[in-house]
What we know:
Layout: H1 2-30, H2 42-45, H3 48-58, H4 68-73, H5 76-84, H6 88-106, H7 135-158, E1 178-180, H8 187-198, H9 208-225, E2 228-234, E3 242-248, H10 252-264, E4 267-271, H11 274-287, H12 292-301, E5 303-305, E6 319-320, E7 343-344, H13 354-357, E8 363-379, E9 383-398
Parallel strand pairs: 1-3, 4-6
Antiparallel strand pairs: 2-3, 4-5, 7-9, 8-9
Amino acid sequence: MRFGWRREVAGWHLLTGVALLLLCATISATGKKAREPKWWSIAKIADPSNLISNHIKSNSLTDHYLDPAIHRILRKKQRRLVRENPGVLVAIAKGARHAVHECKHQFRNRRWNCSTSSSNRSKRLFGKIVSRACRETAFLYALTSAAVTHTVTRACTEGSIDSCNCDYRTEGPSGLDWEWGGCSDNIDFGDNFSRLFVDAGEKGRDPRFPMNLHNNEVGRLHVKSEMRKECKCHGMSGSCTVKTCWWRLPYFRRVGDALKDRFDGASRVSVKNAGNARASNNRQRNRRRKNTRRRRRKSFALLKPYNPDHKPPSKKDLVYLEDSPDFCVRDRKLGIKGTHGRECNKTSIGVDGCDLMCCGREYHTRVIEVHERCSCTFQWCCVVKCKTCKYKKTTHICS
Length: 399
Ligand SMILES: *[C@@H]1O[C@H](CO)[C@@H](O)[C@H](O)[C@H]1NC(C)=O
Ligand SMILES: *[C@@H]1O[C@H](CO)[C@@H](O)[C@H](O)[C@H]1NC(C)=O
Ligand SMILES: *[C@@H]1O[C@H](CO)[C@@H](O)[C@H](O)[C@H]1NC(C)=O
Ligand SMILES: *[C@@H]1O[C@H](CO)[C@@H](O)[C@H](O)[C@H]1NC(C)=O
């Protein structure tokens, strides 16, 4: 009798245990708790030049020179990478800033305009929208990953990272009137570094991880594929009988433009069998720890088009799991401010037009006086003198 009761209690414990496990699995599977990567907020913490001087002052390769604020937002692996590559932190901070600037530019005329939190107290940079696995989030991962690839590669060329420099390898056959030579931007280093640093921590059962990894890779791929050949003439008095050529990074604006195009054509996917994939990933990791390439292909293979009639996403397509909110009205849970008070373009039929921007609500018209510098003249030597011109401008504002 007593024995039986005990068995029942044990059984009950087992049941609650299983229920709890199931509950946890559901929470992580829906991705509700996804947060933006902490390192993103390096964009608002650090004044890059400050980081340099602190580093030089302490002249040590230990963790201690890290500003405590930065120590807090980096993972252990990321701190190790920063330690092993002196100078790279400044490049990462610059990258994060470029990403913010580029995002605001690309989305300036849209309902979601990439507003960021500037307050030092807020832990997040782009805000709660990142908790949703939507297109905007996909774009942010690709853009930040691309930006770090870009600034780290640039920093190698400039000689400001101790562990890398230009790429002097010759790249395949030369042409008839030109040959490879000189200092190519070391995209290999930037690409590898971004994969180690940016992808750190993106592992686990949550379907957000394969999505994030894919989009991070999309960002890097766009930097790589926009690399261009730059040449310089040699020969008698610039006759250009011989040219030397090297690989040069694209302007980051080009990468931003390309990723914005991918945003517009992004693929909605679902993640198949994330649990099994983790298990097989682990097995694979144990077998060949260094073979990251294979793991990447694995996570790529997990992404199936949400609509079976659509073709699978390519390596350069952004992928997302959930539809975007409409961004029309304030939503605290997702950190959305709504389009009340936003300026719209009365004659445009695009996303910046008043119909779409104001979500069908009214808008009002305001005439404002704009002051601008004009009729500037250069005066010897060396000042530029301008007049101030005033003119009236009609603006339309969403109610
Ligand atoms: C945020 O912190 C930086 C230094 O890290 C400081 O210069 C700035 O004034 C702070 N901003 C606010 C709004 O407190
Ligand atoms: C980048 O990684 C690839 C593959 O792991 C490796 O072959 C290559 O040497 C690395 N390049 C640099 C510059 O670190
Ligand atoms: C972005 O949108 C927010 C709210 O929707 C608005 O307050 C802000 O002024 C906008 N920024 C720009 C640059 O238009
Ligand atoms: C408004 O939209 C029209 C049509 O797309 C465009 O020609 C015009 O430059 C836009 N105005 C502003 C201020 O952006």
